[in-house]
Amino acid sequence: MPGVSDRPVTVPPVAPGEYVQQTLAGLDPTAGGGVDPTLPLYATTFVVVDLETTGGAPDGGGITEIGAVKVRGGEELGVLATLVNPGVPIPPFITVLTGITQAMLVPAPPIEQVLPSFLEFISDAVLVAHNAPYDVGFLKAACAKHGYRWPNPRVLDTAALARRVLTRDEVPNRKLGTLAAYFRTATQPTHRALDDAKATVDVLHGLIARLGGHRVDTVGEAIEFARAVTPTQRRKRHLAEGLPKAPGVYIFRAADDRPLYVGTSGDIATRVRSYFTAAEKRARMSEMLAAAERVEAVECAHPLEAEVRELRLIAAHAPPYNRRSKFPERMVWLKLTDEAYPRLSVVRALSVTDTAYLGPFRSKQAAELAAAGFHDAVPLRQCTHRLSLRTVTPACALAELGRCPAPCEHRITPDEYDHRAAAPFRTATTNDPQVVVDALLARIETLSAAQRYEEAAVVRSRLAAVLRATVRMQRLAALTRIAELAAARPAAGGGWELALVRHGRLAGAGVSPPGVHPRPTIAAIRATAETVPPGHGPVPRASAEETERILSWLERPETRLVEMTDEWSSPISGAARFRDLLAKAENGGSHQLSTERS
User: Fold this and answer.
1) Taking the CA of residue 78 as centre, how many other CA atoms within 13 Å lie in the half-sphere pointing to its CB?
2) What is the C-alpha separation between 230 and 91, in angstroms, rounded?
3) φ and ψ at 452, to 5 degrees?
4) At 278, phi and psi to the nearest 5?
5) Does some domain include residue 586?
6) Which residues form the GIY-YIG domain (predicted)?
7) Hey, which of 225, 274, 528, 541 would disulfide with 505, CB 3.0 to 4.6 Å?
8) Does any domain span residue 424?
9) 159, 145: one domain
C-alpha cells in the first residue's frame, strides 16, 4: 500500500461510468475543489503529482506509479508514493525509460486500492502537474472506471505556466528536465514518479517567484495567467485593479474618455478580471480592450439598480462595442389613425391624441408583421389615402378580392366600419384579442386543410407577432399606470433589497441593514427619489426594456410588494391568457394551433 503522511479515510464510491475526455478540471472556471481563487499563493496548499504509465490513452488503467508531494508556503507537508499494478504487461520501452519492471509491479496494489488514499491526499488542495492534462486525464479515467467521484480540483499546469513566464532566450523548451536544470532543483527528474514530483515542486516555486513581476499574487490569477491569453489582455490586465467587489456597472473608456463598452455584474471586480483571461474569446472584446485605457465603476445598491443604470448609460452614450439595448428612441408604434375610416400606421412616437395603438416594437419590420396579422383578421383598409365622407375614391384591387369593404367608394358606413374593423383592434390592444385570434386561427386551419402549409406558416408568424405585442403592452401598462410602488426582496447578506418604482421607472433603490425594519430605509429612499410625472402610453417615462427588467424583478417569488398607490391588475380576459398559444405559434407547426379555437 502507498506510504502517506496524512491519515487516510474512506472515499465513498459512486456508480461506475464510462470515462469521457472533457475540459481539464481546474482550467474550467466552474472547477473549485474547495479552494478560494483569491487565496494568496504563499497560503495555498499545492499537491504536486506525477504519474508513470504504460503509455497510451487514459482508459481507466495503465498507471504504474504515483508520486505526490503536498506543500504550502515552501514547506513540505506530506508525501504519497506507491507503485501500482496496472494489471497488464509493461511494454519493454517503458521499462527502459523508467526502470520499472514487471517483477516490481506484481506485489503492488491495483489502482482501485490506491485511489481512496490519493483522493483524500489531494482534498482541499490545488493539483499541480507538468503537462497536467496527461496526468489528470489518467486519474479521472481511473475514478470513472472504478466508481470514485473525481473531486474536480483547481489545476495548475507548470508547463503552461512556464510558457507564459519564461522566454525562449531563457530556456529552449519547457520540458521538465530543462526547467529543472534552469531552476537548479534539488532533485533531478528521473522518469520515476516521486523524483519527478519533487523536481516539479522546485520548478513550481521558481515560477511563482517570477509571477510577482506580472502582478499575479493569488492562485486564481496564477491559473488564469497560465492559460492562453493574448498579449493585449496581459498588457491591459492592470485595468482590473482596485475595482469594488460589489454590484454595479463598469465602463471601459478610451483615451479620450469616450465610453467603449458598458456592462453590469453582481461583482464588478471579478467580472472585469474575466475580460483579461482566456475565457474571453470574443473578437470584438479583444478590439475593445486594445482601445481601452481605464475602467470606471459605478457601485449600485443591488443588481436591479445596476441593470437599470446599464440600460440608461447604453442609451445615453451608444458605446460602439455594445450590441444590445442601444437606440431606444428607434422604437416604433402601430397606431390607428384619427379619421372617419381609420387605418393602421407605423409611427416613431405617440401623441397625446392617439387613443388606439400597439407597441413599442423594436423595428419597423416587427410592427409591419403585426399589422399584417390584423389585416388578415379584420377588414381594415390598407391604402394610405385620406378618405372623404363626401368624395368617392376609386377602389383598389383588395376591394375586388374581397379583402377590403371599400370605404373609399362608401360601400360601408363609418359606424359599420368602426364596428367590423377598428373596434377589434382597440379591444385587442387594451383588453381581449379573442376576435383577432379566432380569425387568424380559422385562416390557418383553412390553409392547412388545403395543404397550403407555407401560407399557413406565414399567418402563424403574424399571429405570434400580434400576441407578442399585445401581451407585452398590456403587461407594461399594468405597471406604468401605478404612480408609486415600493417593493422588497431578501438580500444575499441579510436585510432587504428595496426598489421604488414610479410609472414603470426606477426612481430610487437601496438596501436595508440586517435585523432592521425596512420601512425607515424606504422612507429615506422616497425622500431622495427621482420625481416621475405621469405620461401618455404604456411606457411614458422609461424605456420598455427598463420597465421589463423591473417587472421581472417584481414577479420573482421572493419579492414582496410593500406599498402601492394604485391597483396592479390586468384584464381577466386580456392577452396574457394566450401565452400558451403564443409559445406554440413561436415554436410549433400550424397543425398544433387548430385545436386552440374557442
Assistant:
1) 19
2) 41
3) -100, 70
4) -70, -15
5) no
6) 245-323
7) 541
8) yes
9) yes
| pTM for the structure as a whole | 0.70
Q: Are residues 283 and 346 in the same domain?
A: no
Q: Percent helix, strand, coil in the chain (nearest 5)?
A: 40, 15, 40
Taking alpha carbons only, the member of 72, 84, 71 closest to residue 42 is 72
Catalytic residues: 191
Are residue 488 and residue 459 in the same domain, yes or no? no
The residues that bridge with 526 in the sheet, in sequence order, are none
- 283-289: long-range contacts, CB 8 A cutoff, minimum separation 24: 284/321, 285/261, 285/321, 286/230, 286/232, 286/233, 287/321, 288/252, 288/260, 288/261, 288/321, 289/232, 289/233, 289/236, 289/252
pLDDT tens for the chain, residues 1 to 598: 444 444 333 434 444 433 333 333 333 444 555 688 889 999 999 999 999 999 877 887 889 999 999 999 999 999 999 999 998 899 999 999 999 999 999 999 999 999 999 999 999 999 999 999 999 999 999 999 999 999 999 999 999 999 888 988 899 999 999 999 999 999 999 999 999 999 999 999 999 999 988 888 899 889 888 877 788 888 898 999 999 999 999 999 999 999 999 999 999 999 999 898 877 888 899 999 999 999 999 999 999 999 999 999 999 999 999 988 888 888 999 999 999 999 999 999 999 999 999 999 999 999 999 999 999 999 999 998 888 888 888 888 888 777 888 888 899 999 999 999 999 999 999 999 999 999 999 999 999 999 999 999 999 999 999 999 999 999 999 999 999 999 999 998 899 999 999 999 999 999 999 999 999 999 999 999 999 999 999 999 999 999 999 999 999 999 999 999 999 999 999 999 999 999 999 986 545 565 455 4
* Residues 105, 90: Cα–Cα separation, whole Å: 9
The total of structural domains in the chain comes to 4
Distance in angstroms (rounded) separating the CA atoms of residues 24 and 140: 10
Residue 438 burial by Cβ neighbours in a 10 Å radius (0-12, 13-18, 19+): middle
Q: Report how many helices (DSSP H) and strands (DSSP E) the chain contains, helices first.
A: 21, 16
Q: Which residues contact 228 (CB under 8 A, 6 or more apart)?
A: 278
**How far apart (Å, rounded) are the C-alpha atoms in residues 88 and 94?**
13
